[in-house]
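Before the break, one more example. Copy the sequence into your notebook; we will annotate it together after we see the structure.
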Amino acid sequence: MRAEVNAGPRPGKALAAAAAVLSAACWGSATVLSKGLLEHMPPLTLLAVQLGASVTFLWLAVWIMRLRVHLDRPTRRASLSGLLEPGIAYTLSIAGLALTTASNATLIGTAEPLFIVLLAWLFLKERAGALLLALSLLAGCGIALVILPDIRGNTGAGSLLGDVLVALGTLFGALYVIATRRLVLTLEPLPLSALQQSAGLLWTLGVSAAALLLGLTELGLGGISATVLLLAAVAGIVQYALAFWFYLFALRRLPANIAAFYLALIPVFGVAAAYLFLGESLLAVQWAGGVLIVGAVALVSLLSRE
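Here is what the structure looks like once it is written out:
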């Protein structure tokens, strides 16, 4: 990369693990808010507002920290990974979330660490031994226990199309992690996040314009209060700017297949946020699922240190 950014020393594994946990906390908590905001505006409009706020925040941070990035050819190529996520991945996922239930979307999203392990083995030649695969299964079982009460109470509000869209978004999210693994070794996480999300915002605006012209969606901003727009902007900064920044920071030190397992913490933070802000209570089976997830992540962290 010819971007004038000093990559500097790579963070320690403990600091990288903490950043990965923080990214999961941002994604999990902001997802609760985004789900509620879908009742006030169409999916593509919400995504555009959130990404717009996130991109503004990231470039402002780049300016404050005085990080210089030349938009030469290698740097522009690096930004194209943002077309995978948040571009394609979140366009598909938020459209699917609007059609299906949160329980279905969460369950399908558990496949992302498995996708990442497989893709890291195929493209990055990272080893995926039997123990790592067993821990991925353990984390998947834990997430299934967390969302089990919602599955049992499902009234059939989901749809096959929504499930397929969420699954495709999950796959593109895994591809993003693989594509970004080597980029973070040569470019600082903050400028890389800003570049990627700028590309994702351009993708979202293009898709939104096409959908409006074809009559597939509406802008949906009429009658929306300033409070709702502010909440959408805050959710975008937390879910995209901070979450991606933390996760890219973690990827500079952790292998992609190890960092992927911290994504298993997202539903744990999501359930906690739902309890704090929506008054939802946890059942015993959900606590058991959370213990399994945290246990699997802790074991993976020990493996990464070895």
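Confidence is low (pLDDT under 50) at residues 1-9. Residues 226-251 form the longest helix (26 residues). Try to locate both features in your own notes.
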